[in-house]
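Task card 7
Instruction: Convert sequence to structure tokens.
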Amino acid sequence: MNQKSTTELTASVRNFSVQPSSTPRGARLARLLATEQLRSWGLPLDPARLLVAELANNASAHGRVPGRDFRLTLYVVGDTLRIEVTDTRGQELPHPQPPSPEAESGRGLLLVEALASRWGVTEGRFPRKTVWAELRCTPPEPTF
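Output:
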């Protein structure tokens, strides 16, 4: 083997996945588990946990099909954290809309759009869809 042609992969790839129930309680569990996973990886918690909370809440509220769970997956490749939430209501794709000033809800995707480096929706094998958001992240500075 020619030692000069071998290269070393320097970027680490980390991932985490959980499949909670499509309920408000499942959305809360997804946020709590994601927060602990980010902490164990030494990554900043915010705004990632806000994005997880919003995407998981949307999956439990708008992507809910009785008897079917949603999946939360976190990937870290290099300095990018990708948050994916997959549900089984693929026929209803999310799109941000300005809510009326009196509305008490409907601002979640605007929050995702503001906090994420980029976000989108990937249609999966019917009936699935995955809503994803990416963040550039660096480990927190050590405190002395």
